[in-house]
Give the backbone structure.
Amino acid sequence: MRTRPLLRCGALMLGMIGALAASPADVVAQTRAEIAEAGRKASPRSAEEAMKFFEEDVARKTAAAVARVYDPTKPPASPSMRTPWGDPDLRGYWLSLSYTPLERPEKFADKPLLTPQEAIEFFREAVTADSAVDPATVHYDWKEFGMDTWQSPVRPNRRSGLIVDPANGKLPPLSPEGQKRRAAAAAAAKITNPETAVSLLPNFYTRCITGNQGPPRLPFNHDSESQILQTQGYVVILTQSNNDARIVPLDGRPHLPSQIRTWLGDSRARWEGDTLVVETTNFHPERIWRGATADMRLVERFTRVDPDTISYKITVEDPATWTQPWTAEIPWPRIEPPLFEFACHEQNYGVINVVTGAQIRATEGLPPARGGDN
Amino acid sequence: MQIRFPSLLMTVGVAGAALWLTASPIAGQAPSGSLFPAYKAPRTADGKPDLSGVWEALTSANWDILAHSAQPGPHPTLLGAWGAGRGGQSIVEGNEIPYQPWAAAKQKENFKNRMVVKVAADPSRFDTGDRELQCYRPGVPRANYMPYPFQIFQTPEEILIVYEYKGALRSIHMDSTEDAPGDTWMGWSNGRWDGDTLVVDVRGFNGNTWLDRAGNFHSDALHVVERWTPISPYHIRYEATLEDPKVYSRPWKMSFALYKHVETNAQLIEFNCVPFVEEMMYEPVGLYRPQPRKAR
C-alpha cells in the first residue's frame, strides 16, 4: 500500500475552503469521506471483486518471483553481454525497487545473507503487507495502477539489508562534525514556524528540483524507473522521476572545477572489467541527501549480472558526515520501455497544496502533517 | 514595443559573407547552400551521418523569431543592459507567420502579457505569460534555438537530445510510426533518414509552449517536421516546417544554423532554473517567503 495525502487533490479543497464556515480540517475530513463514497459508487467492480482480482495477481506474481531468488554470491553470467562496439552492455530500462531495507533489521543482526528459503519467507511477508490494502478504503492505492513493488519484476533477495559495508549492515556512526550538524538541525526544528513556505520544504522532489532518488538511486516507492543509454563516448542515465539526465563521459576528462556545483553532481566514468564505475562530485551546497554535505563523493558500480538484472552498488564517502564510507547493493530488474515525460514543475499543484495545507494547519494550531513524501 | 522590419529587407547568410546573388528573402537564417563544398558527414557504425556532439544556435530567435531590433526589455530601470535583448534577423522564412485573424490578435495580447505569471488553481492556468519565464519546458522547435547548448546522442534505435536548458529531453524514435501516448510539452518525435538528412516528425504537443518570448504561439494541434542536415564537420542546417490548422492559415518554415562546440571537454553545465523562479511564482500567492519564526 502506498497512500498519498488527500491534500494533493487541492483544487476542490481550495475552492471549498473559501466557501464554508467550518474549519478547514473538518472540510478535509468531510471531503475525504464524500470522495471515497463517490469512488465506490463509480467503480465498475465491487470492492470484493477488486480484492479477489488482486489476490490472484499477488499469487501469480509471487510464484514467478520466488522461482528467481537474487543471490549476490553467484558470479555474473558469462559470457558478458556486449554492445556492438565491445563495451559491457548496460543498455535498457531498469527499476530501482526492493523490499529489502537499507539497514539490516535487528532480527538478522549477524546474518548478512539469508538462505534462499528465508529470503522467500521475508519476501512473502512483505508482499502480503504491501498488497493487503483495500483500494476502496484509501484515497488511492498504488496497486490500482500496477505500481506496488510486487507488481514489478522485483524478486526475493538473499541480502538481509542493502548495506554491505560496514559489516554490521548499518550506516556508519556520524563523525563529530556530522553529530554537531544533526544536533543543530534538531535544535532549529524546535523553533516553530507559524507558516511553512516553499523555500523551507526540505523535499526537493516536492519542489520538482530533482527526482525522488539521488543520485544515488536508492529504492523509492514510485517512479523508480531509469533508462541507461550508451554510446562509445558516453553513458546517459535518465530517470522517470523528474526526468533527471546524467551525462557521463567515458574519455577520462577531469571533473569540473569545484566552483561549479549541480543538483545531480558531476559524473565521470570508466570501465573496470565488466563494471561501469561512475564517480560523482561537485554536488550543490543546498542539496539534502541523508544529512550528507555537498563535498560527498559518490561511486556507483553497474554490473550486468544476468540478461535481466543489473547489480547497482553504491559507495558514499563524506568524512564530514560519516566516520567511514558505506556501501550498499541493489539488484535492478529489467523492465519494459519507455520512460514518459515527467513535467513535474509545470503547474506543480503538489507544492501549492502541501504548503497551503501546512499553513492552514499552522493557523489552526495543529502539528505539522506527516505526509507521503515529506 | 515590438518593431518589425519591412519584409523587403534582404536577409544575409549567417556566416557573415554577403552572398548577394544567393541571398534571398525566403532564406530565414539558414546558411546558403554554396557555403561549403558538398559534405558527407562521417558515418556511425550503422552507416548513418553522425550528428553526435554538443551544438548550439547563435540567433536571438528565443527573444523573437521574427526580425527584431535591439530592445530594452521589460524592466529597464532594474536590469539596464542585462535585461536588454539584442537585435536579430528572422529565422522565419518570409519573415511572416501566417496567423489566422483571431490568432494574430492573440499574439499581440500574448506579447502584452508575456511576463504575467499565474500559479493558482485556475482553469485558464496556462493562459499567462511566456513559459520560459517560469522555467517550464520550451517545446519543439524552440528548444533548438534557446541560447543554451544541447547534446545529441545517436544510436540506431533512438537519438536522444538533452538540452542544457532545464535538462529538457527529447527521445527521437527512429523508424517508428508509434503515436504519442499522451500530450506532452516536448512532443513525441519519430525520426528517419532521408539521405544525409535526419527528418523528425513531431506531434502530441499539449499546446502550452510559446515559440519565443514575443508571444508567438501554437495550439495542441501543432505538427512540426524538422530536417537536420550536416553541412560541415561543425555546422548543421536546421529547418522546421510548422503547421497548425487551429492557429495558422498554412504551413510555414523556419531555418537557421547550428554550431558545434569545439572547445576541449565541452559539456552541458546543469541549468536547473526551478529554484530561480520559485520566489517569482509563489510569492504573489503567499507561499514562498518564510515568515518570522518564534521559539517554542
In short: Chain B has one domain: 53-86+101-282.
